[in-house]
Design a protein that fits this description.
heterotrimer, A alpha/beta, B alpha/beta, C alpha/beta, B: alpha/beta, Rossmann fold, seven-stranded mixed beta sheet, two-stranded antiparallel sheet, 9 helices, 36% helix, C: alpha/beta, eight-stranded parallel beta sheet, 8 strands, 19% strand
């Protein structure tokens, strides 16, 4: 192993993709497997540049299926393994991540969302929310962190490894093309210096001793013969997920106390939502701001509390209601009215949010 | 008095009898593999990856650490594992559908990259587990559930020449062979060399095994042996296709 | 077209040909375009060339018209005239290849990449252009170029380089102290490399606070930030 990658706290100016590479390095990630796709490429570019210096591994695979399955192989070997993808690559990534879900494998995948469906744009969107939270032929037993700033990209890349290895569910960091390419300052740190204890990975296969002689063989499958057999395995995984969900779920809020209107957004769009809430507050229009940080599991308890006490959720997203859909499911039965501000595949400015809120406030007067 | 058949040391007795059909070739391929592992004394470091299709029935066949996946993804799983822990000996075991159709990109790319793994592909000329559909290896004129009038090369192509392809795209140092369950001793030699080649770190190792599927072929014992011994070799030439320098051919 | 060669005796005004190279997101485009605008303000004929063939965003493309309104000829694509940007690859604009055949000053904004400076090979006449000055732009707040050793290693990998530009900043958080500290580090690297530091660059407010020369004695160039508008 080389030098410690990040010594002391350092204020730096970086692009989002670089931040992810440094976050993985700070987290002690061992190996990355990836396939080129815009806008995540610089994660690989920077990781590969740092590989020899810090004794890390990298494999450029033939596609995202392979990137996901080789990541699974790395995890089975007991390494902090990760991958990164976007758009059509994320579609392919769902197959290996379904297997990770089935076998409770702590994979880490960073998704930099781009416009969809299909090839669309390489630029930006929030259209991979449903895909990333619920993709695959399963129950969505996974963790998805939606980041809003470069600092969070760093923080949650580190956290993703710990969440994955602690709870053994595939974990995603959901960014987007803007965050990937944007430049802003943040503080790099060594998690140890901040008292963050990194969960130590353990090998699933290839441990010491001869299988069948010194220990039972470690044999993993995702095939079941009987409905009941599968149901039993699922029930166990679902119970573990439900138990972990309240510990994992995170959110951010501002001025939601007694607010009649709460702007709900996630990821980079929440920056516009937050700014809008602040600006409106300055001119005397009181609105709340709420942002789920984990899109899976959602902070259901808090969403239900707000949905019970607030008249309107203004849901702002760069997608056609993907956040709203999971939000409504969580809030089902509550009296709250859901008002959309959907801009699929396009960025949202705080001015647009302010305008929409003014319209809504005007209507209710 | 019953005489127990001699079985490889690394096989897992408590999961026997195995789950394959009577007359299936998988048991023979796996037995040859098990013996090769025994002879090399590497039971403590082999990780066995199997695929969907009938190969998945091997998931608890051995006292070996095992991971089962699907669609030829056993190759990337074993590749990722081997890259992360080069001290292990990775075996990716799959059928002709997984390796030559749905997961063909993994076979091609892992071979081209010279991954230090051993890929074993069982060729029984059709998809056994999904009910006998046409495979890339189905012979011209052969009837399957999706080629009910016999495979027509005009519209569906000719049988995939897997080892020939792998031999062409791999660098020196690769070991490529086609064995057959008709000659288990030779098959074991091929498998052993494929494992040794990985352990020596020379390059990619690939063995295709011509195998039997009496259930889907709807053949009796005699017809089954005729198929693997006479008919299949007309299309699939048995032998070593690529042997690294210094290893010595068969 | 008048070929600009060194043959004419005693040229009154030497033309300026500068290529800005360096680490990803180090500020090459901002420094290059500000340099082009500065020369334009002096009444010189200036061509600014986008030679970024790796990165599809934060290029001169989106602000091409804005810069042209300010008197600089910009050789860059317009986004709407491209297709599948970032997916199909960045197509080299034919005009860019012949940029050095143009009259007047030429400022080349070279993209990043492992061998980013090699992009110059795509420009006809770059190897024989006697006025060509290749400047490496360095932001010490970027971890890849955060120390003297990192910068030395980085610049050595891009040779030939004729000088360094200290463009240390932290975006909106930039202070004179940040820039001055960067100047010291870049200066240290320049000494090892045996290269001059041709300028320290900073946004106007910070540049004003520092004065005409930074703590290491290098001239300070004030920048107006255009690139935040150039996102995609």
């Amino acid at each position: 192993m080389g030098d410690k990658p990040i010594g002391g706290e350092k204020r730096v100016f970086m692009t989002g993709n670089e931040v992810v590479a440094y976050g993985a390095l700070a987290a002690g990630a061992d190996i990355m497997y990836g396939y080129p796709i815009t806008p995540q490429n610089e994660i690989m570019h920077y990781w590969t540049r740092m590989v020899p210096k810090y004794g890390k591994g990298f494999l450029q695979t033939e596609d995202e299926l392979s990137a996901g399955f080789t990541t699974i192989g790395g995890v089975l070997a007991g390494k902090r393994a990760f991958t990164a993808t976007a758009g059509p690559g994320n579609v392919l990534m769902q197959e290996p991540m379904s297997m990770a879900e089935a076998m409770r494998l702590p994979t880490v995948a960073v998704v930099q969302q781009r416009g969809g469906p299909s090839t669309a744009t390489v630029i930006y969107s929030q259209q991979e929310v449903i895909l990333t939270t619920m993709g695959g032929n399963g129950e969505g037993l996974r963790v998805v962190y939606s980041t809003a700033t470069h600092q969070e990209l760093f923080d949650y890349t580190i956290k993703a490894f710990n969440t994955a290895w602690k709870y053994r569910f595939p974990t995603f960091v959901l960014g987007d093309g803007y965050q990937a390419k944007m430049r802003e300052s943040l503080t790099l740190y060594d998690p140890e210096d901040r008292g963050i204890e990194m969960v130590v990975p353990e090998a699933f296969v290839g441990r010491s001793g001869t299988p069948g002689v010194d220990r039972p063989p470690a044999q993993y499958r995702n095939t079941y013969s009987m409905e009941e057999e599968l149901a039993g395995a699922l029930a166990e995984n679902i119970a573990a997920y439900e138990k972990a969900a309240p510990e994992i779920s995170e959110y951010e809020e501002m001025g939601t106390q007694d607010a009649d209107l709460v702007i709900v957004a996630h990821g980079v769009v929440s920056r516009a939502a937050k700014l809008a809430a602040r600006d409106l507050g300055k001119e005397g229009i009181r609105v709340g701001y709420f942002r789920p940080i984990t899109l899976r599991p959602l902070p259901v308890k808090r969403i239900r509390e707000l949905a019970g006490g607030t008249g309107t959720f203004l849901v702002v997203e760069s997608a056609y209601g993907q956040l709203a859909r999971i939000l409504m499911e969580a809030a089902f039965g509550a009296a709250v009215r859901i008002v959309p501000l959907y801009k699929p595949g396009v960025g949202v400015t705080s001015e647009e949010v302010v305008t929409r809120v003014r319209e809504l406030v005007g209507q209710s007067l | 008095m019953t005489i127990e058949p001699v079985m490889p040391k690394c096989w897992r007795a408590d999961t026997k009898p195995h789950k394959f059909c009577p007359g299936c070739g998988h048991g023979l391929v796996l037995k040859a593999l098990g013996e090769a592992i025994d002879e090399l004394d590497i039971q403590d470091r082999v990780v066995f990856g199997c695929d969907i299709g009938c190969s998945l029935l091997a998931w608890d066949f051995f006292n070996l650490d095992t991971v089962q996946t699907h669609h030829g993804r056993t190759i990337p799983v074993i590749t990722g594992l081997k890259r992360a822990n080069p001290g292990l000996v990775g075996v990716a075991y799959m059928g002709d559908g997984g390796g030559y159709a749905i997961g063909a990109q993994h076979l091609v790319s892992s071979a081209a990259r010279g991954e230090k793994i051993t890929a074993i592909l069982v060729n029984n000329t059709q998809y056994g587990m999904t009910g006998g559909q046409m495979a890339p290896t189905t012979l011209p004129g052969q009837k399957t559930e999706t080629s009910p009038y016999g495979r027509d090369p005009e519209t569906t192509g000719t049988p995939t020449q897997g080892p020939e392809m792998v031999a062409t795209i791999t660098a020196d140092g690769a070991y490529v062979a086609r064995g057959t369950v008709f000659n288990v001793r030779q098959l074991k030699t091929f498998l052993k060399k494929a494992l040794e080649n990985q352990m020596a770190g020379r390059g990619y190792s690939f063995v295709e095994a011509l195998s039997l599927c009496p259930t889907n072929w709807r053949t009796n014992a005699e017809e089954t042996w005729n198929m693997v011994n006479k008919v299949m070799p007309e299309y699939f030439k048995v032998g070593e296709l690529k042997v690294p320098a210094g290893m010595g051919g068969q | 077209m008048v070929p600009v060669s060194g043959k004419e005796p005693g040229p009154i005004v030497q033309r300026i040909v500068e290529a800005y190279i360096g680490e990803y997101a180090g500020g090459k485009s901002e420094v290059a375009l500000n340099r082009a605008l500065e020369l334009g303000r002096e009444g010189r004929k200036v061509t600014l060339v986008d030679l970024d063939i790796v990165e599809p965003c934060y290029t001169l493309r989106p602000i091409k018209h804005l810069l042209e309104e300010r008197g600089v000829c910009v050789l860059a694509w317009e986004t709407r005239k491209t297709f599948g940007l970032g997916e199909a690859g960045t197509v080299l604009k034919a005009d860019a290849r012949w940029a050095l055949r143009r009259e007047g000053d030429v400022i080349l904004d070279i993209g990043y990449g492992v061998e980013g400076s090699k992009t110059l090979s795509l420009v006809e006449g770059a190897r024989t252009e006697k006025n060509l000055c290749i400047l490496a732009v360095v932001n010490v707040s970027r971890p890849m170029t955060g120390t003297v050793d990192d910068i030395v290693e980085h610049v050595k990998g891009m040779m030939p380089v004729h000088g360094l530009v200290n463009n240390t900043h932290l975006g909106d958080e930039t202070t004179p102290e940040v820039v001055q500290a960067g100047a010291g580090v870049v200066d240290g690297a320049a000494r090892i490399l045996g290269l001059p530091v041709v300028a320290t660059t900073a946004v106007e407010e910070v540049a004003r606070a520092i004065g005409p020369r930074d703590a290491s004695g290098h001239p300070v160039r004030a920048l107006t930030r255009y690139m935040p508008q150039a996102f995609w």
